[in-house]
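Quiz preparation item.
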């Protein structure tokens, strides 16, 4: 049994840390592939299971919630192809329900939060969940002024020119509309239009598309609006962002306003008062699903009264007053033709199932990730088996198991390799658990000597959230890694490319695939990134468990590269004081600290870092600015807060310019203690840290405002 198979409430704290780290990495990868690249590689069902697992572990271990937790973010960073647009009101995503019981629990939670009687009616809307691309349209004085994708929920891509080409999106609103209104909805493509588009593509000898959702997303995100105009895109409106004056007090009323302004809204939206009515509507929509002209993957429920929505507020990345009730996944059977091994940046070996192509819900799938050797053993599958695959959307499936009665006599079991598939054939080793047992992850022991790991490390270094060097993508990294004239074996080598090229007889511009312009542009792009923010520098190093959010936490805490570097080296050398200082940071735990220590304890890494630091100028991290008395102070919240949630407290403190820590240390300036405060309160007394209660906190906040 792997850690992923252990129920959340049965995990040890160390297992929970390991599981949350794995989930953060996996979900981050899938968010980027889905939202930014429109190239998802897992099914909706598999993705949702990852998020549900993450939430379950966090609920059992709230003290372990990571800075880069998927529950704290929406979507993925926007593509650099488009200008960025900051949403006036964040575009958050919804939590999911997968069963009738989940819906009953959702309604019960709302009643408890609002202190309503257990069976009292509460008006809620129910509408089909369109499987398309979320879009926000801003209108001022009735005219469309901008259109933006969801992006990461805070910042989206400016696709205004393309949105004007969608017939369902009016350039000028009709009726009596607010002076400023951001209309939100879904861009999609009907089944008929999708099939017709593919027929045209095939007739013209062009590549056909896989499914309507990705085709609609790709069509809206074209650099040439003429291409968007040629695609049969449609738009359903169902929500709003900033509004200068609310024309209705209910969700249903606002949707009616959107309709009167000239937008298409969904006729299948209805009003319900109980969980039973919601479920009846869900089952009704599910029965109609095959007859609809567009793809849906569930039904969305929202509290109808906007005042109640305001009271209910939000939980992390999702509103408390809404939920998406997903449909069950679709299944099919196919033959497992083989299992390949992929080697990642950290040397982890991942088995990938190669499937006989099969159509599941209208999409052809050919492979699936098997995670690890234990997953293969758990499934009991052999090469040649007929396997059952599942999907709930439009992407790569999940293998559920094999069909025993159809196992051929020559089916072959898979033996996980004992050596890396790289040219060095270095031994494969298993991770160790905190207790000294064997972990589930197998890694190539070659580290940076392994070509797969070195290349992946370099790709990570130039990735969008790290140094983000324009013109230096995956293919270019592989080219330079293998090029005998301008080899790039470490990050520092990138910044010496232009100098080395100048000295070489054979210039980059003369190599196949390059030219004077492309070579010059690359050298200029590299020079631009010679000055880099501290958080990108930390993230770019590729330290295990240090995602971009964690890197930002570390950057804000230490401020300068010198301070962070000295702290990291001290921790690697066993300095307990330096370790305690890092441990006091909010959401930084042993997994991150151990990873930092291990990274900077390795001689090769230290040389890599020093070589790189000699080539770049690392900017200091700008500290939050505020004229409040809390600006620059470190605050710890402990005990049972009664007037605000822990997230609300953290957000309030950060808005006032403070830094929120998870534990008390000598650097703590203030402890806000509620009932039940224990060890942190005792620690504060030992260190002489000021302690106040929740009422005093609000009094000081009110006085500072």
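Solution:
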């Amino acid at each position: 049994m792997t850690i992923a198979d252990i129920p959340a409430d049965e995990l040890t704290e160390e297992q929970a840390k390991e599981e949350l780290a794995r989930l953060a990495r996996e979900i981050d990868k899938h968010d980027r592939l889905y939202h930014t690249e429109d190239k998802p590689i897992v099914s909706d069902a598999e993705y949702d299971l990852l998020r549900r697992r993450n939430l379950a572990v966090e609920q059992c271990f709230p003290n372990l919630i990571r800075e880069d937790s998927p529950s704290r973010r929406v979507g993925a960073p926007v593509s650099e192809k488009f200008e960025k647009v900051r949403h006036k009101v964040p575009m958050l995503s919804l939590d999911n329900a997968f069963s009738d019981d989940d819906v009953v629990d959702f309604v019960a939670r709302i009643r408890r939060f609002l202190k309503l009687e257990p069976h009292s009616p509460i008006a809620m809307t129910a509408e089909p969940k369109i499987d398309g691309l979320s879009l926000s349209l801003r209108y001022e004085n009735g005219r469309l002024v901008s259109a933006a994708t969801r992006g990461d929920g805070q910042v989206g891509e400016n696709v205004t020119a393309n949105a004007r080409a969608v017939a369902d999106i009016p350039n000028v609103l009709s009726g009596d509309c607010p002076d400023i209104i951001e209309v939100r909805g879904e861009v999609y493509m009907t089944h008929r239009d999708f099939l017709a588009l593919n027929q045209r593509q095939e007739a013209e000898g062009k590549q056909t598309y896989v499914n309507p959702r990705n085709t609609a997303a790709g069509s809206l995100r074209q650099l040439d609006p003429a291409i968007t105009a040629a695609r049969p895109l449609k738009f359903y409106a169902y929500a709003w962002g900033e509004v200068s004056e609310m024309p209705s007090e209910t969700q249903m009323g606002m949707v009616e306003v959107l309709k009167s302004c000239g937008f298409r809204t969904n006729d299948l939206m209805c009003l319900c008062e109980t969980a039973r009515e919601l479920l009846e509507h869900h089952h009704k929509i599910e029965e109609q699903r095959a007859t609809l002209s567009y793809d849906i993957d569930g039904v969305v429920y929202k509290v109808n009264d906007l005042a109640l929505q305001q009271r209910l507020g939000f939980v992390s990345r999702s509103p408390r007053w809404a939920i998406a009730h997903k449909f069950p996944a679709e299944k099919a059977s196919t033959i497992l033709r083989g299992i390949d091994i992929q080697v990642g940046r950290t040397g982890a070996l991942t088995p990938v199932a190669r499937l006989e192509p099969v159509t599941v819900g209208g999409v052809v799938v050919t492979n699936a990730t098997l995670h690890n050797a234990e997953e293969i053993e758990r499934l009991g599958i052999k090469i040649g088996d007929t396997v059952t695959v599942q999907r709930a959307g439009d992407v790569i499936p999940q293998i559920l198991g094999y069909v025993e009665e159809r196992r051929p006599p020559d089916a072959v079991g898979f033996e996980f390799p004992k050596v890396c598939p790289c040219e060095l054939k270095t031994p494969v080793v298993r991770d160790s658990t905190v207790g000294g047992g064997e972990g589930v992850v197998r890694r190539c022991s070659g580290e940076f000597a392994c070509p797969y790991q070195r290349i992946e490390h370099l790709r990570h270094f130039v990735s969008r959230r790290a140094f983000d060097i324009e013109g230096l993508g995956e293919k270019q990294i592989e080219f330079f890694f293998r090029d005998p004239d301008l080899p790039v074996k470490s990050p520092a080598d990138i910044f010496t490319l232009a100098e080395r090229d100048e000295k070489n007889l054979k210039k980059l511009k003369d190599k196949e695939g390059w030219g004077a312009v492309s070579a010059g542009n690359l050298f200029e792009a590299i020079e631009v990134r010679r000055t880099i923010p501290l958080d990108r520098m930390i993230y770019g190093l590729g330290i295990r468990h240090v995602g971009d959010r964690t890197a930002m936490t570390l950057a804000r805490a230490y401020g300068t590269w010198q301070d962070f570097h000295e702290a990291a080296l001290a921790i690697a050398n066993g300095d307990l004081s330096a370790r305690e200082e890092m441990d006091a940071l909010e959401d930084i735990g042993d997994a991150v600290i151990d990873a930092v220590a291990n990274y900077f304890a390795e001689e090769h890494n230290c040389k890599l870092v020093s070589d790189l630091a000699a080539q770049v100028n690392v900017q200091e991290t700008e500290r939050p600015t505020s004229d409040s008395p809390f600006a620059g102070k470190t605050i710890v919240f402990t005990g049972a807060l009664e007037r605000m949630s822990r997230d609300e407290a953290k957000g309030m403190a950060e808005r006032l310019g403070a830094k929120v820590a998870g534990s008390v240390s000598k650097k703590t300036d203030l402890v806000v203690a509620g009932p039940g405060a224990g060890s942190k309160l005792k620690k504060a007394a030992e260190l002489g840290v000021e302690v106040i209660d929740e009422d005093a906190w609000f009094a000081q906040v009110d006085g500072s405002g």
